[in-house]
Design goal:
By secondary structure, this protein is of the alpha+beta class. It is built from 6 helices and 11 strands. The protein has 2 domains: 99 residues, no CATH class; 146 residues, Sandwich (Immunoglobulin-like), CATH 2.60.40. The chain is elongated.
Length: 323
């Protein structure tokens, strides 16, 4: 028992001494020196501090020697619009498998860079085009040399590897929409009416009674062009979440786009349309419409808009026929 008491007493004294040491106060401004760091004394051989040269054929080299110098200038690709060439990471993420926003008149390009496919990469087209209207990039600098163009071409042909040499895989997204445009026939003229929405972008558009109404649907896909899609139908319903009893009408498909502007952007390519006479629709109440599109990568059609969309999206895809 005596040994136990002595052991406990010894432990208590040790704890007390530690606590006293921790409570030791220092005079303000008299901060003790930092503990010695043994790594402070290590000196690496000078030749190891020299960075390895950048391979000008890699994406890091292409960015450092071409994009950063020729394209990331103020007012150009400096983050105000894509592609963003400010950093090597932003350049890659806004080029490879990224959809084209400003296309040629035929709308024939899908991606800015399509790995392994130079002919269908919009980047290569923009730096080699002779179209005076489109303009060759860079617009505000001297054209790229043949060697610089070949470096970009070879990089794309090699699969457009990233900064770590890894080849990206394409996404497999469902077809998506960038909005609608609609025209009502007035005599021999067609008047745009999708902008007539009672003061709000997402209100139903207002259309005249007993007139032909042509609605264009803006659709894009990550692999196929819209005219290659299947199951192309439109349905009308008074219920925004139930089209089950509605008739499916085939969409009109054209292989070259017609360009229109809507509230979400200018000069967008439209391939799909449907013309309906508004006399066949109920008057003075919202009529909702929904299209069906399917690409080759998905087993079921995509519905645009879907019943799971926000109410304001469902309202945007609707119209009211004037009584």
């Amino acid at each position: 028992m005596t040994k136990r008491i002595l052991l406990l007493l010894s432990i208590c004294i040790s704890i007390l001494l530690v606590q006293m040491a921790c409570k030791k106060e220092y005079v303000p401004g008299n901060i003790p020196p930092a503990p010695f760091n043994p790594f402070d004394t290590i000196h690496y051989p000078h030749h190891l501090l020299n960075a390895s040269p950048i391979d000008s054929n890699s994406f890091v080299g292409i960015h450092a020697y071409i994009f950063a110098k020729k394209c990331a200038n103020p007012g150009c690709h400096d983050g105000h619009f894509d592609p963003d060439f400010r950093t090597v990471q932003s350049a890659y993420s806004t080029l490879v498998y990224q959809h084209v926003t400003k296309n040629n008149l035929a709308g024939s390009f899908v991606y800015r860079v399509k790995p392994g496919d130079v002919a269908n990469s919009w980047l290569h087209e923009r730096i080699t085009t002779i179209d005076p209207v489109l303009g060759r990039m860079p617009l505000y600098d001297s054209m790229l040399s043949a060697r610089q163009i070949n470096r970009i071409k070879n990089w794309i042909q090699a699969g457009a590897p990233d900064i770590f040499g890894q080849v990206s895989l394409p996404t497999n997204t469902i077809p998506q929409t960038f909005g609608i445009v609609a025209f009502a026939q007035v005599g021999s003229n067609w008047v745009q009416v999708d902008t007539i929405r009672g003061g709000s972008t997402f209100n139903p558009m207002l259309v005249p009674n007993n007139t032909n109404l042509k609605i264009w649907f803006g659709v894009y896909d990550d692999v196929q062009t819209p005219f290659q899609l299947t199951n192309l139908f439109v349905k009308f319903s008074s219920n925004p979440t139930d089209f089950s009893a509605s008739t499916a009408y085939p969409l009109t498909v054209q292989t070259t786009p017609t360009y229109f502007s809507n509230v979400f952007g200018a000069n967008k390519p439209y391939f799909l349309s449907y013309t309906v006479n508004t006399a066949s629709l109920p008057n003075n109440q919202p009529v909702y419409y929904q299209i069906s599109v399917q690409d080759a990568d998905h087993a079921t059609p995509t519905l645009i808009p879907s019943v799971g969309n926000q109410p304001y999206i469902l309202s945007y895809f609707s119209l009211i026929v004037a009584p």
